[in-house]
C-alpha cells in the first residue's frame, strides 16, 4: 500500500506542533549497552550511520559527510532528544534524508518483506542511544 504524502506531512506536522523534541523513556524499560551501540553505529550492515555521518571511529575508513559529525552528540543533546532523532527524525525535519530507525507507519515505498518491521529493534535503539550519550565534546 502506498501512503499519500499528505498523510505523512500531517503526522509529522502534528508531532512538531506539540513541540515534542524528545522521547524520554527507554523503549525497552532498561538501559542499553554502549559497546553494543558503538558496534551498531559503526557497522555497514546494521546501522549504516557512517554512510552519512562521521564519528570517533579511527578504525573506519570512508565515513560520511552528508550529516553532522556524531562526535559531541552527547553534549549537544539529551538522551531523550537523541532517542527521538534515531527513532523518527522526520518528526523534527519532515524532509530529512535520515531514515526512521524505529517506525513502521507513514513510510512510503517499503518492500513487502520489510513492511511492518522497524530497521532496528527496541534493544538496538537503546544500545545506540547509550553509546551516543557517551560522545561528549
Ligand atoms: C542517509 C543519511 C543518514 C543516515 C544513514 C543516518 N543519518 Fe543521522 N542524520 C542525517 C542528517 C542529514 C542529519 C541532520 C538533521 C536532519 O537533516 O534530520 C542527521 C542527524 C542526526 C543526529 C543529530 C545530529 C546533530 O548533532 O545535530 C544524530 C544523533 C544522528 N543523526 C544519528 C544517527 C545514527 C546513530 C544513525 C545510524 C543508526 C544515523 N544517524 C543514520 C543523515 C543520516
CATH superfamily: Cytochrome c-like domain
In which range does the helix fraction lie?
A: 25-40%
From the alpha-carbon coordinates, what is the Rg to the nearest angstrom? 15 Å
According to DSSP, the number of beta strands is: 0
Order of helices and strands: HHHHH
Low-confidence segments, ≥5 residues, pLDDT <50? 6-18
Task: Briefly note the CATH topology name.
Answer: Cytochrome Bc1 Complex, Chain D, domain 2
Bound molecules: heme C
What would the principal axes of the Cα set say about the shape?
globular
- Number of helices, where a helix is a run of at least 4 consecutive DSSP H or I residues: 5
Quickly give the structural class: mainly alpha
Salient structural properties:
binds heme C, mainly alpha, Cytochrome Bc1 Complex, Chain D, domain 2, 137 residues, globular
Question: What would a concise description of this structure say?
Answer:
Helices cover 34% and strands 0% of the residues.
Structural notes for this entry:
The protein has 137 residues and is mainly alpha-helical. The chain is built from 5 helices and no strands. Helix 2 packs across helix 5 and helix 4 packs across helix 5. The longest helix has 13 residues. The protein is globular, with a radius of gyration of 15 Å. Heme C binds next to helix 3, helix 4 and helix 5.
Amino acid at each position: 500500500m502506498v501512503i499519500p504524502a499528505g498523510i505523512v506531512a500531517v503526522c509529522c506536522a502534528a508531532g512538531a506542533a506539540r513541540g515534542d523534541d524528545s522521547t524520554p523513556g527507554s523503549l525497552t524499560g532498561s538501559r542499553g549497552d554502549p559497546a553494543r551501540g558503538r558496534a551498531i553505529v559503526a557497522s555497514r550492515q546494521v546501522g549504516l550511520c557512517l554512510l552519512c555521518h562521521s564519528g570517533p571511529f579511527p578504525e573506519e575508513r570512508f565515513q560520511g559527510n552528508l550529516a553532522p559529525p556524531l562526535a559531541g552528540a552527547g553534549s549537544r543533546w539529551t538522551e531523550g532528544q537523541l532517542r527521538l532523532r534515531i527513532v523518527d527524525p522526520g518528526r523534527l525535519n519532515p524532509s530529512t534524508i535520515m531514515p526512521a530507525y524505529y517506525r513502521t507507519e507513514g513510510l512510503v515505498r517499503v518492500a513487502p518483506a520489510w513492511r511492518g518491521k522497524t530497521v532496528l529493534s527496541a534493544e538496538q535503539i537503546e544500545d545506540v542511544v547509550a553509546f551516543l550519550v557517551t560522545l561528549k565534546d
